[in-house]
Amino acid sequence: MTGSATENRRFINCPTVNALNFEEQVVVCPGCSQFGAMCCQHPNDDCHHHRLFFADGACLNNGRGGARGGVGVAAAENDKNLHVSKPFSDLALERDGNPKRTNQIAELRAAIEAVALIERFYDSYGPNGEPNSKPDIRKRKHQNISRSSPQEPPLCVIGMDSQYVVKGMTEWLPIWKENGLKTKSGYEPANLNLFLLLEQDICRVERKWGGGMVICFWWIPRGCNKIADKLAKDAAKLDIN
Ligand SMILES: [Zn+2]
Ligand SMILES: [Zn+2]
């Protein structure tokens, strides 16, 4: 056990680590520059027990004419293969073709792309994050790193500064489901289709690894999400409305 837990997909690190500042809880592996949320068992090295995927959405001209949107995801500091920077015009071609752009939709689509990156990562690395026969995402070698045991299922943490997505997935969605996909006051929640698409993708990727893999959400302060923020803003500038 690593001392961490999840509750309704909310990441709860062990109390000793939780007492630190957020900046101190984010670790960068010296071997591969991948991000992690510090694990209380191995605070001074990188064990990859809690893989951290930063995600952020951007919407320029939000609420005005000619809004442009983009998403950013980063699973490593220096590995461009583990960065995602996609304008909405590209996402619309790949996914459901819905052209609507708002800040909230950008955040939801960023979480969806984080799940897609998690899937690509484990397709290349297997359930334990070890390179398999075709390691096209990460080729660098690890040295002196205590890895999760083969029995230990991956815990993937999506770090976002959007309360809307983190609370939506971990607090509101369970209530909506109990209420027949309605809010407490009986209305259909805004962007319900995207919340459900996000959950569907999460469940599919978790099932792919035979259960045990958990994808969860962690609210982080804006200042900790700078890499994903930049990737999202750069993408939004390239969006063709
Ligand atoms: Zn590493
Ligand atoms: Zn660990």
From TrEMBL:
Sections of the chain in a coiled coil: none
Record keywords: Endonuclease, Hydrolase, Metal-binding, Nuclease
Gene Ontology molecular function terms on file: metal ion binding; nucleic acid binding; RNA-DNA hybrid ribonuclease activity
Enzyme class label: hydrolase
GO biological process: DNA replication, removal of RNA primer
Region feature Disordered, mapped onto this chain: 126-153
Keyword rRNA processing attributed: no
Cross-referenced InterPro entries: RNase_H, RNaseH-like_sf, RNaseH_domain, RNaseH_sf
Domain of life of the organism encoding this protein: Eukaryota
Catalytic activity, reaction form: Endonucleolytic cleavage to 5'-phosphomonoester
RNase H type-1 domain ranges (all copies): 47-237
EC number: 3.1.26.4
Keyword Nuclease: yes
Family: Belongs to the RNase H family.
Protein name (database record): ribonuclease H
Organism: Arthrobotrys oligospora (strain ATCC 24927 / CBS 115.81 / DSM 1491) (Nematode-trapping fungus)
